[in-house]
Amino acid sequence: MAKSRVTPLKTITIPRLELAAAVVSVRIHKLLKGELEYNNVEEVFWTDSKVVLGYIANEAKRFHIYVANRVETIRDHTSPDQWKFVETQYNPADHASRGMTADELCNSKIWWNGPEFLWQHSKMDSHSQYKVINENDPEVKKVVCHAVGTQQPTDILERLEYFSDWFKAKRAVAVCLKLLNSFRGKGDGTTKVKGNTYKPVNVAEVSEAENVIIKQLQSKAFQKEINVLKSSANHNSLIKGDNGKGTKVIDKTSSLYKLDPYIDKNGIMRVGGRLRLSNLTDESKHPVILPKTSHITQLIICHHHKRTNHQGRGITLNEIRSCGYWIVGGSSLVSRHISKCIICRKVRSTTQGQKMADLPIDRLEPSPPFTYSAVDFFGPFYVKEGRKELKRYGVLFTCMACRAVHIETANSMDTSSFLSAYRRFVGRRGPVRQLRCDQGTNFVGAKSEYEKCLKELNNNKVRQELMKDQCDWIVFNMNVPNSSHMGGVWERQIRTVRNVLSVLLDQHGTQLDDQDLRTFLVEAENIVNGRPLTVDHLNSPESLTPLTPSNLLTMKTKVVLPPPSIFIKKDLYCIKRWRRAQYLANQFWSRWKKEYVQFLQLRNKWTTPKRNLSVNDIVIIKDQNLARNQWKLGRVTEVSPDHDGLVRKVKVLVSDCNLDNQGRHIKANRTIIERPIHSLVLLLEGNA
User: Fold this and answer.
1) How many C-beta atoms surround the C-beta of residue 116 within 10 A?
2) Cβ-contact 486, 462 below 8 angstroms
3) What long-range pairs does 535-543 form, CB within 8 A, spacing at least 24?
4) How far apart (Å, rounded) are the C-alpha atoms in residues 3 and 1?
5) Residue 313 and residue 460: Cα distance in Å, rounded?
6) Which pLDDT band holds residue 607 (cuts at 50, 70, 90)?
7) CA dihedral defined by 91, 93, 98, 99, rounded to 10 degrees?
8) In the 3-class helix/strand/coil scheme, how is 423-458 assigned residue by residue?
9) Is the peptide bond before 641 cis (omega within 30 degrees of 0)?
10) What is the pLDDT of residue 331?
């Protein structure tokens, strides 16, 4: 016998539909049992719903009404042991619910004969693991337990943790005390609990609230000392040691031992000190003692720091003490507060610093001179052309490895002049693999010109041809804007050249033409290249001749890398002169590694790692052309850690907000700029 139901139009979940089908199965079982009148027949119920098996086998959980009623119907006529699990593909009930054609129905063995495992004599497993209800099943009623607990009255100091202003904290406590007195019938009759009349607190009430706060604070921080003072017969007696009368004294290990404290008539502990006979006010002679670790203490420090217009530690601390407060360890607390004050950071804080970075590989790799170079402009110098006075600039190229210099002249600081100077430099000194510089407009323009030329050429074909000669395109390595310290190698060389030029110009006068200027620059280049790289053994008569950049300037081959060979001392007497030059070059680099590279080992400054700037840090950007109060505010959006994990350059989001004629804000222009950390002042640490 078979029977099926049509799914109702009202939306019902799949587990509920499966449970309704199980109820239909139980009703058919009841009908057949009554009509056939068979005795001792074992009934077995099969379902492909694991959820229904869990509902029927449940003994502990409670269901909602729909599921509970149907489970009760099933449990009234069957037992959970009679219910077993069948896979969907072996369940003939699916044919009735899903529908079949007449041909499919006639040829369906499962519909007419049932699944094959029913004809087997082996006992089937009841699949007890499926009879477990999921804890998150929506049909299971949630157990709600209501508990009533008592809470102790909250400490007033904990409530004041939410305040960031000392006066507002006192005023809030004064209002609470006024309301409390009104409830107790001690008010002035103006405040009405259920009415709308309210009279603001006055100075006396604020002062009373301050005394309440300080008494609570002292009783929590100095409970031991207060108990000793209250138990003493005379609060004004000396407390430094036993006076021979059995008076209890404060322990010498206490932070209040040297303050000679006493408790006044209001129950507040004050400093006794040595100023009792002075003409100062009572608040100045006997200030209130405050603990070191307390939010109230921080509020008082912040309040008086603002009253002194964000002055330094000494003025702020004196203001606090003159107003009648003595903070234990106050000097360090005031210094710590000033170090975190945003306005003080903006006005007086120094720029960020970081441990000095390791030397780049191009300063440590043995290579022919000017393979890894750096360039910068210096000047201007004035020359005479007839009656006209013209500007000329020096273009200094320096080798990153041997520290040799090459100086060219330029008529202007534009891109064309730099490219012309660069072509003269490469024509005389050979190919360059990498060129370091700052982000001057002329250098940025030259880089753009080279990139534009590369796009016009067959880049891959030209690159392959150059690779045969172990050459490559020049790589521009530009420093971050406003980071002159990152180009210290060539900046120091420019200073050296200037020192030489100052002597030459002093000797030959100020009337120059182009020819004289070029001569002077070549003279300076010759002198700078003749300087020793190390001075450690100059005073020793047995030391070798010191290394100079001039030792190697004429030994550079056209190929960037050295020839593939091994050069020995016998090559000095070889007929092949190029092998002599290569042996001398190897000797130079060997001494360069031993004498000069080790000299670069020390960090003369910036030796300690500092906190790295992180994303969302608020900073102000240093600008030499503006006053400090006009420096722009920015937010760090991206950091660039070096290989050692330290951040030395970041990207900052800057927003320029303008005003219209009515003083309203116009849409801000947001730009992202890249800056070194040495040009930034940290105002507020953000959360990344």
Assistant:
1) 10
2) no
3) 536/595, 536/599, 537/595
4) 7
5) 65
6) confident
7) 120
8) HHHHHHHCCCCEEEECCCHHHHHHHHHHHHHHHHCC
9) no
10) 92
